[in-house]
Amino acid sequence: MTQPLAGTVVLDFTQVMMGPIATQTLGDYGADVIKVERPGAGDLSRRGVLAQQGMDNPVFLALNRNKRGIALDLSSDAGREVAESLIARADVVVSNFRPGVMERLGLGYDDARRINPRIIWAAGSGFGPSGPYAHKGGQDVLGQAYSGVMKRTPDPDAPVSVYATAIADYTAGQHLVQGILLALLQRERTGEGQKVEVSLYNSMLAMQAQEATARLMHDVELNWAMMPLTGCFPTLDSELVIIGAFKENPLQRICAALELPDLSADKRFADLDGQRENRGELRRVIADRLRERTTAYWLAALEEQDVLCGPVLTLAEALAGEQTEVNRMLLEFPDSDGRVVRTVASPIRMSAAPPEVRTAPPQLGEHSHQILRDAGYSPEQIRALVARGVVQ
Question: Which residues of the chain have pLDDT under 50?
């Protein structure tokens, strides 16, 4: 089966999270992704997180399958010449350095375009190429903090805290994929490449489009977690979530499931405005009742009333769950040393082009010689580059 990006060459200068998320998605659907790393050190995520796992820790393995790897010293003239020769053969260049770094290396958009007018030059950053925050690194937690996401708590009394999953990196990474695919589609029509830019900051603002529009147009706070009948509640043995919406009288249904008097008949809770005004008391009554029995008991009762609800699972429980297996969301494949890599699959399902694992995440410099041969370097030239430390 021919994959949609088969034959597309992506030169990947990215590291850590946002960029590798994007380039792995391209690789899953057929692109030849060439990962460029620093000799000796490699991608920061090889050692920067869970360092006790060595050069191939789970953070790196999660984001770098379907890539060939070259270790190249971009601080040297010879290394930059190699990068230029790779750009000449590539369709896409992707980076997530701070703004200005690629330009200082002589590999910015104008440089790349002179080498290859059809190039799509894509950059992900923390805050964009200019402005008061442009100098800051593209780190997920900063994206959460500066964009307002971190302040959006589920309750006014809840402490402000870091979201435990790299939501800014993942969102911006997928926006970077979208921009690259749009540019490839436009190039098919015009024959011209272009620059594509995304940032953690912009992606986090875009993720809050509904809430931002409510604020901009009416200066009101729209907070889905603060809806009076929606929330996470402790039970006798764990927690469950209830979404009291999409029904004519959801409170009446919740009360029937919880074997409570019909609180919607109480004038304090008779309509949404009253429920909001008396949210604390309403939720206290519901929470007290839910603590009396197990999650399984209440789920059955709520589902019988057609109330949207679910258990609150740990990641380990979700990974071991039947739905994850049915959705084919787990991958197992051997790495170059024969060890089994267990990770999460692409969430995108295409009937005519399923994702596939062609190569495991590369060892540092694993494909350097092969990539240079593909670029037209002779064995003698390759040996000379290795001897000079330009290539590992």
Answer: none
Query: Is residue 29 helix, strand or coil?
Result: coil
Residues of the chain with CATH 3.40.50.10540: 9-208+322-387
Q: Residue 109: count other Cβ atoms within 10 Å of its Cβ.
A: 20
pLDDT at residue number 154: 86
Spatial separation of the C-alpha atoms in residues 232 and 338, rounded to whole Å: 43
pLDDT at position 48: 64
Residue/partner pairs of 155-160 with CB below 8 Å, 24 or more apart: 155/225, 155/226, 156/226
Nearest Cα to Cα of residue 371 among 10, 4, 3, 6: 10
In angstroms, rounded to a whole number, what is the distance separating the alpha carbons of residues 99 and 111? 15
Residue intervals of the chain classified under CATH 3.30.1540 are: 239-311
CATH fold for the domain made of 9-208+322-387: Rossmann fold (3.40.50)
Distances from the Cα of 156 to the Cα of 53, 79, 152, 160, 280, angstroms: 40, 54, 9, 10, 11
What is the 3-state secondary structure of 199-255? EHHHHHHHHCHHHHHHHHHHCCCCCHHHCCCEEEEECCCCEEEEECCCCCCHHHHHH
pLDDT the model gives residue 45:
87
Alpha-carbon radius of gyration of the chain:
25
Helical pair 167-190 and 18-28, crossing angle rounded to 10 deg: 50
- Measured distance CA(247)–CA(264) in Å, rounded: 13
The pairing of strands 120-125 and 67-71 is unpaired
Pairing of the two strands 67-71 and 92-95? unpaired
How far apart (Å, rounded) are the C-alpha atoms in residues 392 and 373? 14
- What are 228-267's pLDDT values in tens digits? 999 999 999 999 999 998 889 999 999 999 999 999 999 9
Burial 196-218 (b: 16+ CB within 10 A, else e): bbbbbbbbbbebbeebeeeeeee
pLDDT score for 338: 85
Tokens read off for 132: 């008061």
Give the catalytic positions in this structure: 169
| Residue 379 to residue 113: CA distance in whole angstroms | 29
pLDDT tens profile 150-160: 999 888 888 99
Closest CA to 221 of 156, 265, 268: 156
Its CATH class, for the domain covering 239-311, is: alpha beta
